[in-house]
Specification:
Helix 1 crosses helix 2 and helix 1 packs across helix 4. Strands 3, 4, 6, 7 and 8 form a five-stranded antiparallel β-sheet that branches. The chain has 265 residues and is α+β, with helices and mostly antiparallel strands. The longest helix has 11 residues. A hairpin with a 2-residue loop joins strand 9 and strand 10. It has three domains: 54 residues, no CATH class; 82 residues, Immunoglobulins (Immunoglobulin-like), CATH 2.60.40.10; 81 residues, Immunoglobulins (Immunoglobulin-like), CATH 2.60.40. Helices cover 14% and strands 31% of the residues.
Length: 265
């Protein structure tokens, strides 16, 4: 009786009897007409039927090819190195510049996160270049980490940044007001002379406008005594009138002349 057949039958837990051997051959796929002769001479068993028998004895080749090794599970990225990024203060907080990304361990980096002191991790919104973070003046510790499909990578070493409050801007010295534009005032005749109406005041130069003056032809300047309107008494005739305003610094430039005709009442 074939040793190979006996071993195969034993590997299947079948009795080492002739009936058991027949069953073993049937299970192995040996054609019926080859079973009985094969009980004495396994050389008559087709080669494809011996493979499972030989495999059971530890010899020959496994009928199924070896499965390829399963790929390793992806890993999160490595930590940012010190030279991979920088941080600097700005007028409103600080700016982080990503110089280069760390090793991604085979999975593309999809996000970069930052953390300030013991705060929560926040998506930077970029994976390259620079991004700004608004904070109040103070001293901070900033960390970065990269993220891929396997998760967040290790935290970088902390980098300090000091945000300093900007110096308050010194107010510029005030100047005299600007000149009245033609649209800023109107001139109209009245039964007793003419009226001046201020539609809008010009820029005050940083010091409040204190008054408005008018000039008729080349006479002296006269205070209108109002920032809104005023009545001027005049004899019948034609007049050229212009105005100006003043603040604590001085007088504005003169406006252009406007003409008015006062009729006989």
């Amino acid at each position: 009786m074939s040793e190979k057949i006996a071993a195969y039958a034993d590997s299947l837990g079948l009795p080492t009897t002739q009936a058991g051997q027949i069953e073993a051959l049937r299970v192995a796929g040996v054609p019926r007409e080859a079973i009985l002769p094969s009980l004495e001479d396994d050389s008559r068993i087709p080669a494809y039927c011996l493979k499972p028998i030989e495999a059971a004895q530890g010899g020959g080749e496994d009928p199924d090819p070896e499965d390829p090794e399963d790929p390793e599970d992806p890993l999160p990225p490595e930590a940012f190195a010190a030279e991979d990024w920088s941080v600097a203060d700005t007028e409103t907080g600080f700016q982080v510049t990503i110089v280069s990304l760390p090793e991604d361990n085979g999975e593309a980096i999809t996000a970069v996160e930052y953390k300030v002191d013991d705060g929560a991790w926040t998506d930077a919104g970029v994976t390259s270049g620079a991004f700004d973070v608004a904070v109040v003046p103070g001293e901070y510790q900033v960390a970065l980490r990269a993220v891929n499909s396997a998760g967040a990578g290790e935290t970088s070493d902390l980098k300090p940044v000091t945000v300093v409050a900007p110096d308050p801007e010194e107010p510029e010295d005030p100047t005299a007001p600007l000149a009245f534009e033609n649209a800023d005032w109107t001139l109209a005749a009245t039964p007793s002379g003419f009226s001046i109406t201020i539609v809008s005041l010009p820029e005050d130069g940083g010091s409040a406008i204190q008054g408005v003056e008018y000039q008729v032809d080349t006479e002296d300047w006269v205070n209108l005594n109002s920032l809104e309107s005023g009545e001027v008494t005049a004899d019948p005739g034609e007049y050229q009138v212009r105005i100006r305003c003043f603040n604590s610094v001085g007088n504005s430039p003169d406006s252009e002349y406007k003409a008015v005709t006062v009729e006989v009442a």
